[in-house]
Amino acid sequence: MANVFEVLERDHQEVKRLMDELEERPRGGADEQERMRQRKNQVRQLIIEESKHEAVEEEYFWPAVRDLVPQGKELAEHAIKQEQQAKYVLNDLIDYEPGVARFEEMLGDFINDAREHIAYEEEQVWPELRLVISPERAMELGTKIQKAKRLAPTRPHPHTPPRPGLLKAAGPFVGAADRIRDLVAARTRH
Ligand SMILES: [Fe+2]
Ligand SMILES: [Fe+2]
Question: Which pLDDT tens digit goes with each residue over 127-140?
């Protein structure tokens, strides 16, 4: 059992860990091809984690912020704009190969923006929500988010409007289709 802040923080930690790994200087030894294969896997993992996380925030977190926080509408709008932009970049990243200049440039931009987005949520939004949310509702929201993550889409879907309700209606199907595509992509790469 964990409340909404604990659940989201765990996700943020995981995303930050993956981004730190991607920024590490390559260690000597491993051959270039192997290194690029690893990098591709790390990016794939980042896309999966980030897609699931933002999808469940859209479905459950932002509606709660809008509902409970006095300036919630504005806070949510700003954050969702950042999330949408990130989805377009991630969607493009799927088609590029690591090592290619364009890929590395897009990834670098994504990482900067993602850190900014995470800081915005943790520093601007969470403190406001903490002031007004009851412990019961925080737990309930955490549980819902954890459950929804199991079926959430693992790809960014930038063309789907970031509205709550869509995930409830289409999420399990989109999530399942994404997982099949992830598997196929993983197999063809070996
Ligand atoms: Fe977010
Ligand atoms: Fe987040």
Answer: 999 999 999 999 99
CATH number at residue 8: 1.20.120
Between the CA of 53 and the centroid of ligand 1 the distance, in Å, is 7
Average pLDDT over residues 108-112: 95
Q: 51 C-alpha vs ligand 2 centroid, how far in Å?
A: 10
Here the tokens at position 145 are 């988010």
Q: Which ligand is nearest to the CA of 145?
A: 2
Number of domains present in the structure of the chain: 1
For residue 80, give the ligand nearest its CA.
Answer: 1
Residue-number span of the structural domain to which 148 is assigned? 4-188
Q: How far is the CA of 108 from the centre of ligand 2 (A)?
A: 19
> What are the two backbone dihedrals, phi and then psi, of residue 155, each rounded to the nearest 5 degrees?
-125, 160
With residues binned 3-state (H G I as helix, E B as strand, rest as coil), the percentages for the chain, rounded to 5, are: 80, 0, 20
> Is the Cβ–Cβ distance between 60 and 166 less than 8 Å?
no
Residue 134 CA to ligand 1 centre (angstroms): 21
Look at residues 51, 70, 69, 71 and name the one whose alpha carbon lies nearest to residue 162: 51
